[in-house]
Write a structure and sequence with these properties.
2 copies of one chain form a homodimer. Chain A has 201 residues and is mostly helical. Helix content of chain A is 76%, strand content 0%. The first copy, chain A, has helices at residues 2-29, 36-43, 50-53, 57-80, 86-103, 105-114, 121-124, 126-144, 153-174, 184-199. Chain A binds a DNA duplex (30 and 30 nucleotides) through residues 3, 7, 35-37, 45-49, 51-52, 56-57.
Amino acid sequence: MGIAERKIRQKEEFRASILEAAWLQVLSDGWQSLSIRKIADAIEYSIPVIYNHFENKEAILLEFTKEGFQKLADTLLEVKSRYSNPSEQLEAMAHAYWDFAFEHKEYYQLMFGLGIPACEMVNQIAEMKLMTSVMISTIQEAIASSNNTETNYFLKYHTYLSILHGLVSIEMIQKVGKPDPEKKMILQDAISGFIKSLVIN
Amino acid sequence: MGIAERKIRQKEEFRASILEAAWLQVLSDGWQSLSIRKIADAIEYSIPVIYNHFENKEAILLEFTKEGFQKLADTLLEVKSRYSNPSEQLEAMAHAYWDFAFEHKEYYQLMFGLGIPACEMVNQIAEMKLMTSVMISTIQEAIASSNNTETNYFLKYHTYLSILHGLVSIEMIQKVGKPDPEKKMILQDAISGFIKSLVIN
DNA sequence: TAATTTTAGTTAACAGTGTTAACAAAAGTA
DNA sequence: TACTTTTGTTAACACTGTTAACTAAAATTA
């Protein structure tokens, strides 16, 4: 009964080839110009086959959104593991976040920008919760080893993420290509201020 | 020779009616579903007339982007004038910025979000420079009356704007309708930390 | 005023988009 | 081999922005 298994495998490969073709499209022309038709063209199949594997175009985008959050969460975890002090961790994670955003610009724009993440959808992306939990746990640890252990960790998490996302997106809006390396000073400035107010209070 | 003047006036009115119809569309269905055809339908003219008044769809969006930055700049100036202390001004402006974003969600999303402001375009929006200059001047004043007058004002402006935009856009992504009033605590937290590090250092 | 030019506005089309219903062909099962 | 299921295709629908070609109205000139 290897037939059924082969079919599943083929279906999986097909699905992967759709995503791969889509990703190549995105890399060369950006999200805006990704189209079902071009994907179909690239994989040399007719259009409707794509709908056998993805409910609609948004489902394809969702796949990449998940991938993006997964990658970001992994990166943050890895970076965090290189330090023991929560403050150092938060700082290193901030830099890693920045680097991720510009090294994987396409992912980042989908994850936060273009997405106009359809309302409830956001909360249903498990991979996003992963990123959230990495950040929150580190902030909790920082608070635990601080002067004021009564600090609202959720509020601080929200502040942390907002500062990071604000820095990144303002930079992305203004500059086009490479991220001005000087701008990392701004990141450093903002994030060290945040950390200081977090642990010293 | 009142004919030429009447013609100019009519052209102006026509242009205004296009913008008005577009704005109603946006208010009821959002930017994503704004279309030239619907505008033409609303003003009861054929499609190509719109291209006599606007080069393309983006030009219409640009008009609203300018309007948005103008309104925001006006608001910031007005709020600033109610205080004399730069720190108080920066704090009040931060709250005004937040309020503007959610009271004029459509404008804000166009100004910063969807816009994917076509590269150079951003620097050519005079109204945006207006907003920038209001913020920068206040920060300069805060620095002047601080401990460390050597602080890089441009870096601090960038940080200020990034914090604000980050807070707003993270909130907009997560919540759909009304802005959680509790979230203003986060704004307060982040901005008072910023101001403290700006004037005390 | 009549003829001519300019302007304003229309229809119809082009080249795209996402999505789906109806059908044909291939593959698996009895 | 005959039947059923899966797989894939064609062709269409309902949209999108944009523009070329044409007509009708208005303004200008002779």
